[in-house]
Amino acid sequence: MSVTQHLQGFGHHLILGVSGTTLSDDDKRALSELKPVGVIFFAKNFLDSAAYEIWLQSYRELIDQIRQYAERDSMFITLDHEGGRVVRTPLPITRFPYASLLQSRSRQVAKATAVELQSLGINISWAPVADIYSHPQNPVIGPRAFGTTPETAASGAREYFLGLQESRILGCAKHFPGHGDTSKDSHLELPVLDLTIEDLRNRELIPFKTLIEEQVPLVMTAHILFPKIDPDVPATLSQRILQGILRKELGFKGVVVSDDLDMKAVSDMFVQKGTVAKAVNAGCDMFIVSRNINSSSLERTYYIAQDFADSLNNGSLDQAVVAAAKDRIEKLLAIAPQYLVHTLDKDTLKQHAELAIACSFQEVG
């Protein structure tokens, strides 16, 4: 087996970011050697100062190149596209407001968003946020959540997910088991939440339970330590949280995906031998490496891919667990629509802009 084939095993579990509006030599090498099952886009991948037709054509060529180098006809083409501050795309793609402002229009907004995502070739939106805005000083979630109570957060997230689903975009419940009560940003450090399993059942798990009952196909992990539940590792690496709570207690049967491994909360952990094996054995099926935060993340990605292969060879990574994870991913990929990038007409975009404006005015009565 060649070195490249040796590393491609991890590619079946990898969502990778690329460096810009065109592929660098490093991008081409990573795509052709690792063959990731999906990619994630950020603002850096769009020609922000160009006219719609020009940036869209540039982006279309980027996707075509990605497929060519990855040698995959079917891929997960993904985007963080929640609204509020989490929007990566240039105008005229609609700037919908934060989830907290959508209220009764959540499903309508999700359907409009899905139309726009399809036009960008996107088949997975990393939304809805299932966290609860329960900590007023939360620096990372805040108004990205649909509500300040379990009920309002669950209702809004459910409606948004159903809107995406009805419009054939795959949604993802995030960040399990709940990021809403933190006062730290996991992009910068590892948050610690002193909650018990009962605390989670009474609050944080309620929106996730609602989405799982609606058969949400993906759940994203939170890089948060819950010492009263698992004092040793954050949720992304915790068997008690991913297998015990998510799989067994809540009955989730879909794909578990990590939050970005470039985030400082876990980035140093994943350059330690055996960490990726620990995460897969714990229940994580797929991993995001955005290359949007950490400039050395391509080197780290190769390290993780090598560690994944070594762990399989030395038996610390269970072959049956990897096979089950790969099977879940392949089943999801088989139903993921593969959209062609195309221009949206002005009337559609105008209707969506009017909907965004309507969401920004509080409903009275």
- Please, what is the average pLDDT? 93
The number of helices is 13
Report the major sheet: 5 strands, parallel
Cα-atom radius of gyration: 19 Å
Which class best fits the helix and strand makeup? Answer: alpha/beta
What's the helix-strand series?
A: HEHEHEHEHEHHEHEHHEHHH
By DSSP, the count of extended strands is: 8
Helix content: 40-55%
The oligomerization state is single chain
How are strands sequenced across the largest beta sheet?
4-3-2-1-8
Beta-strand percentage range: 5-15%
Overall morphology: globular
Termini gap:
67 Å
| Unreliable residue stretches | none
Question: Which short descriptors sum up this protein?
Answer:
365 residues, alpha/beta, five-stranded parallel β-sheet, three-stranded parallel β-sheet, 13 helices, 8 strands, 43% helix, 8% strand, globular
Description:
The protein is of the alpha/beta class. 43% of the residues lie in helices and 8% in strands. The protein is built from 13 helices and eight strands. The protein has helices at residues 3-11, 25-34, 52-70, 106-119, 150-166, 197-202, 205-213, 239-249, 264-267, 275-282, 297-314, 319-335, 346-359, and strands at residues 14-17, 38-41, 76-79, 124-125, 172-176, 218-221, 255-257, 287-289. The protein has a five-stranded parallel β-sheet with strand order 4-3-2-1-8, covered by helices on one side. Strands 5-6-7 form a three-stranded parallel β-sheet. Strand 6, helix 8 and strand 7 (255-257) form a beta-alpha-beta unit. Helix 1 (3-11) packs across helix 11 (297-314), helix 4 (106-119) packs across helix 5 and helix 5 runs parallel beside helix 7 (205-213). The radius of gyration is 19 Å and the shape is globular.
